[in-house]
Each structure stands twice: as structure tokens, then as C-alpha cells.
Design brief:
By secondary structure, the protein is an alpha+beta fold. Helices cover about 45% and strands about 15% of the residues. The longest helix has 20 residues, at about 45-65. It is extended and about 60 Å long.
Amino acid sequence: MSIYTVHMRPSSQEPDPDRFVFIRDGFSFWAFLLPPIWMLRYRLGLVLVGYIGAVILLAALLYFLGAPFTIIVAAGLLLSLLVGIEAATLRRFTLSRRGWNDLGIVVADDLEAAERRFFDAWVKGEPRLISPPKDVPRTRPTAFSEIIGLFPQPGGAP
């Protein structure tokens, strides 16, 4: 099962299905293999500038420290691995900067099932899929409540 976040383009018109983006949470192979091309594909301009700056800074730092070429390549691969792991977060960051609305999350086997599940809930008018149920009590423990493994408080129950 995959987790998808759902985002809607901001507009004053009635929302239609073409204005939604589903982003699968998890590792992105293409973001790991070709980070700059992947960033251009999804129009992540600010992220691309930050990535190029990080690559130049990392390569220059390792070069001036006298690190061997294999270490520089390994550091570049680790940076690409980080981009692959955080690909969905980078896309969500860019969408939120552009004013897109985060509508919630959907858990499904694939993108088609996630879309079907989300739009079924959307048509029924159900609340945001990410919000917790309203009947969950929100209680905080008191300062002198008994916790297993701790010493009793002075003046408290033995």
C-alpha cells in the first residue's frame, strides 16, 4: 500500500479533477538517478538552484580538503540518494510555496485506486482525509499522575 498526498491548485472556480495532484510518498528512483532532470520535469526551480549550490559547495569543500576522487563521487551519490528519499517532500514544498491547497492523504495500492478513493470521498462531501476523528479525547496527564517506573511525588498517593 502506498500513501499519496492530495493537492489542489488554488482558484476561485469550482474545483475539477484536472486541478488535483497526487504525490506518492516514498523513494523516487528517477530523482536519485537524474536529480537535475527530475527537478526540471516537475518545475522545481528553487530546489534545483539549491541542489546545484549544494553540489558545487560540497565538491569545492572536498576538493580543498584534499579528499580523493572516490570520496567526492561517494558524497555526490549520497546527495543524490537524499534527493531520491526526499523527492515527495521537495514536490510538496514547491506546491505549498505556489499556494496549492493540501487536501489530505489517501492510502491505496496504486495511483488509480488513490484517485478513485479520494474522489469518492470528495463527492460525498466528507471532511479532510487527514484530520483526526472528532470523538478522540485530547487529555493531558497531570503533573502528579503516577507513571510506572518513576518515584512517587512527595505528598502524593503511595
